[in-house]
Give the backbone structure.
Amino acid sequence: MSKKYKVLVVDDSAAMRMLIKASLQGSEFDVVAEAKDGQEAVQSFKANAPDLMLLDIVMPGMSGVEALKQIMAFNKNAVVVMASSMGTEDAVQDALKAGAKNFLQKPIEQEALLKILRNTANTFIRK
Amino acid sequence: MTAKFIGQYLLEKGLITRDALLAATEQQLRVNQTLGALAVAKGLLSEAQADAVNLEQQRADKRFGEIAIARNLLNPQQIDELLDAQKKQRVFLGEILIKQGYISREKFEVELALFKKEQERSAELVKLDLLSLPQHEVIEDFLDMTLKILLRVAKEQVKITSITHTALQCPYTFAQRINGDQQFDYVLALPENMVFALCQHFLRINCVEVNELALDAMNEVLNIISGNGCAKLSSRGMKVTLDPPRAISSAAPANAICIGLSSIGADFEVRFYF
């Protein structure tokens, strides 16, 4: 494995963050930071400069889409994959318009998660 | 009124053990292939194409074949052939229970006939109760997603047992507000053993106490059901949004619509507060 991608995981559910971390363990995706709401997500993105970010939508306080807009304003090359149960057309469109590179609808299964992260990394991250 | 799947029926009658049932249902889930996996195995679709169809299927809750045809990936004849192949290779729970020696074929066949008769009566009564509710379309969509998500994330086969305005006594209740064209609270009310079972499958850890992590996991299961339920409403043209899950009192208001559900070894409930 030549390079590990630094990943920031944002979800208000500690259980979901734990599940995502366990699913990525041993892969080329290294969870370097976690955040539990939109505001923490923006701060953590600025502090940790991750290669890739998994971002929930429905969270208390600042939503994932609002956080995404702030992150894209800070770094237009940010690589963000939305991971949400909220798979309505509006939610998907809002996320993609705000700059998300991909959308994964919960429930998250390990195989699907790795596949979507690999596709996104191969397409958007220069090695 | 009762509605259950054959495994639970046999368990309740003391004809098989819980361990036998769990082993058989797990084997069944492992063996039975999805249409996407079959299409890839037969070289009709690439993995990426099958994944894309599966993803849309989750979002829009349409049939695999419907989406694959709309995307010009497969034609109706190929779908029929895949369905036929799936049917031929499908393993039923009863066959596994018989092959593993958990029950004799003769006994199983007698019980299956009795079970089917009971189910027909029960399904008719539940359907009549559901159709009498003014919000039945929304409730049906959310119930459908509840059963699918619980099967997917927690490997729990769940059946609807009753529709009433009287809430079951459950110590753990989790609620989420849906706003927009439809406004209601969707509530999951669980006994302790169901929290353990869901938590164990969802987080893949041994859950022995209802701690903060277990409660958080239940909120996330609720959130996944609600989000997918909203996606289903959205596919019907409704505009809906979702608030984060929140803690509520276990007591239900008088107008609550309480749907009794049953899985292996636990009765629980989802409620709708319109």
The two ends of chain B are 25 Å apart (CA to CA). Chain B has two domains: 33-89, 133-273. The domain at 133-273 of chain B is CATH 3.40.1550.10 (Chemotaxis protein chec). The longest helix of chain B spans residues 105-131.
